[in-house]
Amino acid sequence: MSGLLIRGAAAVVTMDGARREISGGDIRVADGVIAEIGTGLVPAGEEILDAAGCVVTPGLVNTHHHLFQTLTRAVPAGQDALLFGWLKALYPIWTRFTPEHMRVSAMTGLAELALSGCSFTSDHLYLYPNGSRLDDTIEAAGEVGIRLLATRGAMSIGESGGGLPPDSLVETEAAILKDCIRVVDAFHGTRPGAMVQVGIAPCSPFSVSRELMRDAAILARDKGVRLHTHLAENDEDIAYSLEKFGCRPGEYAEGLGWTGDDVWHAHCVKLDGAEIDLFARTRTGMAHCPCSNCRLGSGIAPVRAMRDAGVRVGLGVDGSASNDGSNLVSEARMAMLLQRVSRGADAMSAREALEIATRGGAEVLGRLHDLGSLETGKRADIAVWDVSGIEAAGAWDPVGALLLAGPARVRDLVVEGRLVVSGGQMATLDMPRLIETQTRLARGLAEGA
Questions:
Q1: Best exposed site among 71, 92, 157, 329 by fewest CB in 10 Å?
Q2: What is the pTM of this model?
Q3: Which among 230, 270, 269, 410 is positioned nearest to 328, based on CA atoms?
């Protein structure tokens, strides 16, 4: 698609510096870039996308996911467990994954994200059984058509060494670093509008050594890529850090080079005031995963305190074995509601939650210069939400209604100027076939459990 004119939206929510909202707004797209925003734009031969009755936003940005987990949703053994027990229940299943499981599971999760208005996602793949590689996820993203920051995760300390994962799922640290170099060199995009980038992401302080955390940070900075891991997810996580390292997670991270504007941590539910100040001072980012935190009983992350302190916060759906879905607009609603539960009804507005889901995520992932807002010259990642249906019927404020009422599924999603979702359906995939394959693979895993 060389040109597109999105015309006549009820509201265009730009998320630009002034947070402008344009009634009756139009957006002209050319060569994957936003060429013009305004009202009454005259068609110039582009394809017309009628946005009457719709709210138009930047594409949503997902800052934390484990796409491989869409094949292990609602596993009975882990449904009512805290984080560590949940992991122990799922690890034996994941040891049986093949490259096909990885690719199909990723495609399913990416399609679900796209249908929820997400145009750019990170993914944290930290286990590689039976010949699986990060390449499998990157291939899936190419087929689905949304942007991907693929992080090369890793686990190096198995049960025999005092870690959580079974020994069969860990790798040697030399092999981990070697493959990090391979995938960065092969796939990390540096051109404007890059569709694929790569980060380095040891799984967590309880599954890799202090040396690997340090070496990963050194390597990432040498390669100019981002760093990601899990941190301070629940009380078990804090207890482990105090017992094994003699310090809290924030201090551990800082001592190994894991703070800075090229770093973001997932969850951070249990950060204390000093750690929040550390993140704000060093411009370290945080991926807030409210639904997963609820599902695993981890708690409510102090997002209000973080935002007030100046911490960069984005949203993450987390893995589909701990959420158990990949709906990012629903995640934004949950983020808003949980802050209100813990801090009062005025703790977070619908518009602030939407901001976190768009420009907030783009900033955390280092892409606010070209994504996260609707502005002339930025990449054309655009979500079109039909608010004329039953979910928002009677709404006085269509923008507020997007999170307060619905819908939870996007009508159209444009990524790099191309339609990925059209009329509420995937435009890039044979969805019935994908679901059939996903169901077959999941059934095979369940029967062998």
A1: 92
A2: 0.97
A3: 410
